[in-house]
TrEMBL record:
Subcellular location: Membrane
Ranges for domain Glycosyl hydrolase family 32 N-terminal: 1-310
Keyword check for Nucleotidyltransferase: no
Membrane topology: Multi-pass membrane protein
Molecular function terms, GO-annotated: hydrolase activity, hydrolyzing O-glycosyl compounds
TM annotation in the entry: none
Assigned keywords, A-Z: Glycosidase, Hydrolase, Membrane, Repeat, Transmembrane, Transport
Protein name in UniProt: Beta-fructofuranosidase- insoluble isoenzyme CWINV1
Organism: Striga hermonthica
Family: Belongs to the glycosyl hydrolase 32 family.
């Protein structure tokens, strides 16, 4: 979801172990789809209607008087083992991160009735509206009989009371259960994505229905009559013509979900990448499964299939360009690409093959041959007339470990049409014995007489940004103010590396072996080697600004108030002010100084959180101020200020007790 300048990623998560169970909605946010901040779980099993798990669902942006309001529809596995659909909404729309969510008192909103098997009724889509803008629609994945998968359609006026339509949005008797359905419009001949609620003529807009089954994601394209809620597909799921069984991805890619990015007018697609590791491996490493690289989705010029490409933001991860052009590759030759090593965090490789001629090309009799089986039979080590051409990625020096991504060109004997077969051979991807050794393949609708390009995007992991709610408090006569400011700044400069280490380590969550840093010493040495002294003092200017304001008011303000109370005392200017009066004064000064300097403290913490990150979000202190104001609003500078007021009680006590300890030391002669 994209909301108020922030990307939100919700995903299935077990907070207690890296194995299936205790399913909750994890929540991460980002400003650029690259660096992510982990937040607390948005939804966890807690009520009878979801006590056995909060399963998949979707977010819909509801209209409001002054702003849109996100609403989550999700599947709950209830206490009876039945799947029901529930609603959750943000607690505070003013919170730019939407950290807290509350479940509707009307849950469950939709229950399996009318012959629906309660064990096969899950994963509601993003809701949409048609020309009757007062009516919402949502589709839920189901199985009507053993082989018929369906997207059951429901309608609602208020997003709370839902009624089932007489017929499903679509169904197919060749698939079985549909998981994680997705339904959205695509522009005919356009370069931009469309919101789910856009309503245009068929000549301008087509619709995509995606369903997940058989561990794969399939989609169909068709025409949607929004007035009658009728969807007619061009070619149905699992068509007998194998080459028309359209999939998002012919590798490991499942339970995908798209969303409309209103900030850049594009549709972005995410998918779940299961791993080949065993459950024991998952427990050892501390995670199970990956999120795919986010990609944009458009309808191709033919209108028959979708085209996808990694989001533009990923280009920010590119380093120095390595180019190798006009190389002639002989049969069975392996050409090493210099300048790319296995130690790199990512490698984005583009390669084009120009085939000089297609004389003597291999003929294929049956155009319905399963491409995956053909890839197994003619793997990367089997030579053909035209192929294999491709790349060996994640390869060891001796090539005992490698993953081949390649293509071959065939010609159909029946009609003379060229066929391009794209394959991924993972049979030698690992020397481990218990991992899956899979082959993946697909026919591509390209012209082999033109250049054939391959692109592989291989990201081992993104450095995910942490987040902390903690941090030291920083931020009358002029002398008191300056004395307090200078004392605070002097102390800050001395202890700043420890302060920044404390802040970063507090946000470095996870199992010890998976954390980015293994302690204060490791953090300081790692950051110093990478960024030098600047790294361990990142955010110091913002901290000094806050220190001047906060410590100046904190120490200087308290001293000034004490002097004023002493001078006005009826017992004379040298009289001692009562302890409770000094505590009240200290509390007032501490609260005021904390609130005045809190925006500076917010910027300070944001800057400190960037230490150790590959690509900081902010270019400097001023840039941080601008981005927070522009993307999150003025209120974000005071996010968490109330809890800071409660914490100030301890700081007020420090001021008062400091005076009492000084008196005791003077009295004892120390």
């Amino acid at each position: 979801m994209y909301y108020n300048g922030v990307y939100h990623l919700f995903y299935q998560y077990n907070p207690y172990s890296s194995v299936w169970g205790n399913i909750s909605w994890a929540h991460s946010i980002s400003y650029d789809l690259i660096d992510w901040i982990h937040l607390d779980q948005a939804i966890t099993p807690s009520e009878p209607y979801d006590i056995n798990g909060c399963w998949s669902g979707s977010v819909t942006l509801l209209p409001g008087p002054d702003r849109k309001k996100p609403a989550i529809l999700y599947t709950g596995d209830n206490s009876l083992g039945q799947q029901v659909q529930n609603l959750a909404i943000p607690v505070n729309l003013s919170d730019p991160f939407l950290e807290k969510w509350m479940k509707s008192p009307n849950n469950p909103l939709i229950i399996p009735t009318g012959g629906i098997d309660p064990k096969f009724f899950r994963d509601p889509t993003t809701a949409w509206r048609g020309p009757d803008s007062d009516t919402w629609r949502v589709a839920v994945g189901s199985r009507l009989d053993e082989h018929r998968g369906a997207a059951i359609l429901y309608r609602s006026k208020d997003f709370v009371v839902w009624e089932r339509t007489k017929v499903p949005l679509h169904s197919s008797n060749r698939t079985g259960m549909w998981e994680c359905p997705d339904f959205y419009p695509v522009s005919v001949g356009g370069e931009n994505g469309l919101d789910s609620s856009d309503d245009e003529e068929e000549s301008v807009v087509r619709h995509v229905l995606k369903a997940s089954f058989g561990d794969r994601d399939y989609y169909v394209i068709g025409s949607y009559d929004s007035k009658n809620d009728w969807f007619r597909v061009d070619v149905d799921f699992m068509d007998e013509r194998v080459e028309l069984r359209y999939r998002y991805d012919y590798g490991v890619f499942y339970a995908s979900k798209s969303f409309f990015d209103g900030g850049k007018n594009r549709r972005v697609l995410w998918g779940w990448v299961t791993e080949a590791d065993s459950e024991a491996d998952d427990v050892s490493k501390g995670w199970s499964g990956l999120q795919s690289i986010p990609r944009t989705v458009l309808l191709d010029k033919s209108g028959k299939q979708l085209i996808q490409w990694p989001v533009q933001e990923l280009e920010k991860l590119r380093g120095e360009n390595v180019s190798l052009a006009n190389k002639e590759i002989k049969a069975e030759e392996i050409l090493h690409l210099p300048g790319i090593t296995a130690s790199q965090a990512s490698a984005d490789v583009e390669v084009s093959f120009r085939i000089p001629h297609l004389k003597g090309i291999e003929l294929i009799d049956d155009p319905l041959v399963d491409p995956q089986l053909l890839c197994v039979r003619m793997n990367a080590s089997v030579n053909g007339v035209f192929g294999p051409f491709g790349l060996l990625v994640l390869a060891s020096k001796d090539l005992t470990e490698q993953t081949a991504v390649f293509f071959r060109i065939f010609k159909l004997r029946s009609n003379g049409k060229y066929v391009v077969l794209m394959c991924s051979d993972q049979s030698r991807s690992s020397l481990k014995t218990h991992v899956k050794e899979a082959f993946f393949g697909s026919y591509l609708d390209v012209d082999p007489n033109q250049e054939i390009s391959l692109r592989t995007l291989d990201l081992y992991r993104n450095i995910l940004r942490g987040k902390s709610q903690q941090g030291d408090l920083l931020s009358g006569p002029t002398s008191n103010f300056l004395a307090g400011s200078l004392a605070g700044c002097t102390t800050l400069i001395i202890i700043y590396p420890l302060d920044i280490a404390h802040t970063r380590l507090a946000a470095d969550l996870g199992r010890p072996e998976t954390r980015q840093f293994q302690g204060i010493r490791h953090f300081l040495t790692t950051v110093y080697k990478k960024d030098g002294a600047r790294g361990i003092y990142r955010g110091l200017p913002a901290s000094l600004h806050g220190m001047v304001v906060h410590r100046g008011l904190y120490f200087g303000g308290f001293d000034t108030v004490k002097e004023m109370m002493t001078m006005s005392s009826q017992s004379g200017p040298d009289a001692d002010v009562a302890l409770w009066k000094r505590w009240v004064a200290a509390q007032a000064v501490t609260t005021a100084s904390g609130l005045v300097s809190y925006p500076l403290d917010t910027v300070r913490r944001r800057m400190m959180m960037q230490s150790g990150l590959a690509r900081p979000m902010y270019g400097g202190t001023l840039d941080c101020w601008r981005k927070i104001y522009r993307m999150e609003g003025l209120g974000s500078f005071y996010r968490g200020a109330l809890s800071n007021v409660f914490r100030s009680t301890g700081a007020a006590a420090v001021l008062v007790l400091y005076d009492e300890i000084k008196k005791l030391m003077n009295w004892t002669g120390l």
